[in-house]
Every structure is written in C-alpha cells, then in structure tokens.
Amino acid sequence: MSPHVNVGDTAWMLVATALVLMMTPALGLFYSGLVRSKNTLNTFMMSVGALGVVTVAWAVLGYSLAFHNGNGFIGGLGYAFLHGVGFGPRTGTAIPHLLFMAFEATFCIITAALVSGAVVERMRYGAFLVFMLLWSLLVYAVLAHWVWGGGWLAQHGTLDFAGGVPVEMASGFSAFAAATVVGARKDYGRLALLPHNTVYVLLGAGLLWFGWFGFNGGSGYTAGNVGVLAFVNTLLTPACTLVVWFLLDLVRGGRVTAIGAATAIIVGCVGITPAAGYISPTWAMLLGAIAAVPSYFLIFWRPRTRLDETLDVLAAHGLAGLTGILFIGFFAQTVWNGKSNGLLYGHAGQLGWQAIAAVVGPAYAFAMTYAILRLLGLVMPLRVTEREEAVGMDVVQHGEEAYASGEGAILVTQEAGVDGDRAVRQP
Amino acid sequence: VKLVIGIIRPEKANDVLEALFRADVRGLSISRVQGHGGEFERVETYRGTTVKMELAEKVRFEIAVSDAFVQPTIDALCAGARTGEVGDGKIFVVPLEQAVRIRTGETDHGAVTPIG
Q1: B55 touches chain A (CB under 8 A)
Q2: Which of A301, A409, A297 is nearest to B36 (CA)?
Q3: DSSP string, B17-79
Q4: If you average pLDDT over residues A20-35, what whole number do you get?
Q5: Chain A residues with CB inside 8 Å of B43's CB?
Q6: How many CB pairs below 8 Å do chains A and B form together?
Q7: ipTM of the complex
Q8: Three-state secondary structure string covering A210-221
Q9: Using CB atoms, which residue from A387, A400, A407 is nearest to B34?
Q10: In chain A, N or C terminus with fewer CB closer than 10 Å?
Q11: Are A199 and A233 in contact (CB under 8 A)?
Q12: Which of B16, B34, B46 would best serve as a mutation to test chain A binding (most A beta carbons within 10 A)?
C-alpha cells in the first residue's frame, strides 16, 4: 500500500462506501411503501435501476466529469474509464483514489434514484433509465464538480460537506422539474392515492438513517476528528427533527403520524448533510429543529396544488438541503472544522457564498432536468398510457406483481422432459 | 326489491362509486374477488417460471334496491365501469326474497331506501 495512504481511514471508508450503497435499496423500500400496491415493484426497481445504469455511467465518464481538474464548470476526461485511478492516495485525502471513486459513485447512484420520487406510478421504466443515465452525467457530475471537484463554488469557498448542492438540492429541484414535464398521475387530485405499506416506509427510513452514518461520516474521508463530528451530528440532527415533527403533528392534527416520523428522519439527515463536518453538535441540534419547519409546511401545502411531485422530494431533500447549506453560512466554526467561520463567528462572506450556492445549484438542476426530459420526450414517450396506468406499473412494465397470489396461474414454461401439454389449460 | 350484482375492474371502482352516488344509490357493499371472463391472459415471469394469469382481480358490488332504482343502478354501473375493452365485467340482477334493516327492523322497500 502506498506510504501516503492511511490504513485506518481506508478501513472506515470501505465500510462507509458499503453503507451508502445500502441506502439505494433502502430508498426503494421507502418509496415503494408510499405508492399503491400495484406499483410497488416498479417504484423499487427505479432505485435498483440506478444501481446498474448510474454505476456504469459513473465509471465510464461521470467520475471524470466530476472529479478531474478540467475547468470551473466541469471536469475533464482524464479519468474516463477510470484511467489513472489507482491505489495511490486521492489528492487531499489519505485513502486510495480507487476507493474515493467508489465512495463518490454511491452518492451519484442514490441521488439519481431520489429523483424517481417525482415520477413514480406513471413514468415508463425504460425512459426513466435513459433519464438517469443523462442526469447523472449532465446534472450530478457537474454540480459535484462545482463543490468538490475544484469547480467555481469550491474555489470561492462554498462549504458543502456531504452534498447539499449535488445531492439534496439537485435531486429536490430536479424532482420539481421532472414532475412538471412528466405531468400528474391521471387520478391525482381526483381520487385519494394512499401509501400501501407504512411499515416499508418506516423501515426504509430507518435503513436510510443507518446508511447516512456512512454518507456523512465518510465525507471527511477519514476516521479522524471531522469524521467523528459528522458521524455524531448525523445522530443528533435527525433526532431533533423527529421531536419537532412530532410537535408539529400534535399541534396540527392532535396525533403523531408514522409517515410523518419517517419523513422527519429523512429531513433531518438531509439537513445535516451539507453541514455535518462544519458545525458544532449543539448547532447541529438547532439545525435539526429548524429544518423540520419549512419542509413540514411544504409537504402539507404541495398536495393542494396541481403539482404531482408525488413523494415530495422537493420538500424532503430540496428544501431541507437548502436550509442546511444556508445554516452553515451562519454557524460554521473554525474551532470545529478547521476551515471557516460563519456569520455568527465574524465571517459574513461565508454566508454570501452559501447563499449563491443555494440559488445557482437549484436553478441549474431545475433547468437542466427540464431540458433533458423535454428532449427525451421528443425521442420516446415518457409515460405509460392511461389504461396501463390504471392496471398498474408492475404488471405492465415488469410482468410481475409484488403480491402475486398464484391462484389461477397456469404454468407456461416447458420443463426438460415434460410434455408441452402441461401448458394447456386444465378444464 | 332486487339485488344488483356488478363485477367490475378494480381500477374503475371509484368511478362506479361516484356514478352510483350521483344516481342517489347509497346502500352498497363491495368485495375484492378474482374472476375469469373472456379477457386476454396476462403473462408473468418469475425467474425461470413463466405463467399465464387466468384469474383477474375484480371488484364485486352488491346493491339491494327497490324496483324503481334497478335501471338507474344498472346505468350507473355501466357508465362508471365501461372502458370498451374485454374484461369490463358483468351485471346480474336477481330477485330478493326479503331485506331487513337491522337497526329498525324495517323490511323490504323501507329497508333498502336510504334515510333522508
């Protein structure tokens, strides 16, 4: 192993990478519980699709566009096909470059999968796979380059620990754009479209929180101080969001809701994502409490509009990510992060660059996603037909059901040595 | 007094409910059933196992109505459930020997007439 590689850091980052990869099927579980039972598999498969398509795109091109020097806007092609990505340390870290690439890959995968929340129950599976491929290169890689790959926001000192810009705001505002282009489900606003399994939702949220310890805890690329700070903040912030969410639920409806609790966990994890390694544990707790409020009210208000941003990615990720990015501008402390102070500690300029990131990041994500889907819509239909939407995406898109009963199922497969007559319907 | 039984597509159940309420038919029960009509079979594949699904999910409406309401009920079921494709379902109308409203003990016409 290269003498500049730290074995302890590498061990932690191997585990952290696996933790973040687990978040994508966890997201699939979370999302599939929130849809109707006839769309369970399709919703889950959108996340599984990201595991395949986005990983390949990342290795071939995405990693290079995000993390090669290039220019201020986008990285170069120097790392295309992982050229030159080896066992030596990645600049600025003490972990192997190859591992760094894999860790960052898991971020791109889950972020692309997050956007599916806006278009579930009606978008064609093939079209969504093509969309994720383009999106991971044209939106995610570009925004990751801006804040982490030596791009213009990084050069001006914008702080984004684990992805407020490329992950949370990018997925949230891309979801907003995707819902606008793809359009509402045919029954949206007419029928009650209810979550079909709240236990999936809670378990998915719990697994996401578990994975988030790798997501935030690994984003310092070390098992040292900054890793510990980010790890602990990932415990504290979502807990505070949960408690405040409970209170908001109690005040509004008199009861604490399960889906509300699952949502609160996500919102808290998202809120601390950009700030995890930059603010003290005390401020992290305040962030958790504050982040609950705007997301709570957007989730309450959005279904009253014509915007069928089905699983509220904008509220849970876009808005909570924005809250976290801005929060750094006020409460960052050099004594904790060794990098920069926020407004409260005498450095107003930090808030300025956080605010610029909070405007430009979402604007780019929205505009580019809108353009990708508009153009894709010219080449292939984005949605299934109304009739197919009524039957359900699982049967129509995958030829499977999540809850197949088996009654009335006639075997068609011809087994070796068995007469083909087996396939003929019995009277 | 007649019992109207409608077997329809599950995805049209809400449309049928809406049509029935608009026709002032308010006493009904529904259940999920599986059935086979003339519709094309769905083919599903689970790993190496390919199957034809011969039974399709359906929703069964049971509606007891006085004679004057039979035709409006049938009309509402048809209007709500029709897509024009094979598999829209069937309606059966059968005579009803007796109907009793448990709360009041009213029978027949009184039992199937909505209150207020």
Answers
A1: yes
A2: A409
A3: HHHHHHTT----EEEEEEE--SPPPEEEEETTEEEEE--EEEEEEEEEE-GGGHHHHHHHHHH
A4: 98
A5: 399, 412
A6: 51
A7: 0.77
A8: HHHHHHHHCCCC
A9: A407
A10: C
A11: no
A12: B46
Retrieve residue B21's tokens.
């309420």
Spatial separation of the C-alpha atoms in residues A270 and A275, rounded to whole Å: 10
Name the burial class of residue A85, with classes exposed (0-12), middle (13-18) and buried (19+) by CB atoms within 10 angstroms of its CB. Answer: buried
In this prediction, residue B108 carries a pLDDT of 86
A387 interfacial to chain B (CB closer than 8 Å)? yes
Check if the beta carbon of residue A160 is closer than 8 Å to that of residue A127: no
Tokens of A87: 């066992």
User: Which residue does chain A place closest to B56, by CA atoms?
Assistant: A408
Query: If DSSP codes are grouped into helix, strand and coil, which group holds residue B99?
Result: coil
Per cent of chain A over pLDDT 90 is 91
The shortest CB-CB distance from A401 to any of B9, B44, B52 is to B44
Tell me the pLDDT tens digit for each residue of B7-21. Answer: 999 989 989 999 999
Q: Report the interhelical angle of A125-135 vs A40-57 (nearest 10°).
A: 30
B49-53, strands of its sheet edge to edge? A409-411, B49-53, B42-46
For residue A17, pLDDT over 70 is answered with: yes
Reported for A58-65, long-range contacts at CB under 8 A and 24+ positions apart, including other chains, are A58/A104, A58/A105, A58/A108, A58/A109, A58/A136, A59/A101, A59/A105, A61/A137, A61/A141, A62/A105, A62/A108, A62/A136, A62/A137, A62/A140, A62/A141, A63/A101, A63/A104, A63/A105, A63/A141, A65/A137, A65/A141, A65/A142, A65/A145
In terms of CA atoms, which chain B residue is nearest residue A396? B42
Judged by CB atoms closer than 8 Å, whether chains meet at A404 and B44 is answered as: yes
On the question of pLDDT at A416 being above 70, the answer is no
CB contact under 8 A, A405 and B11: no
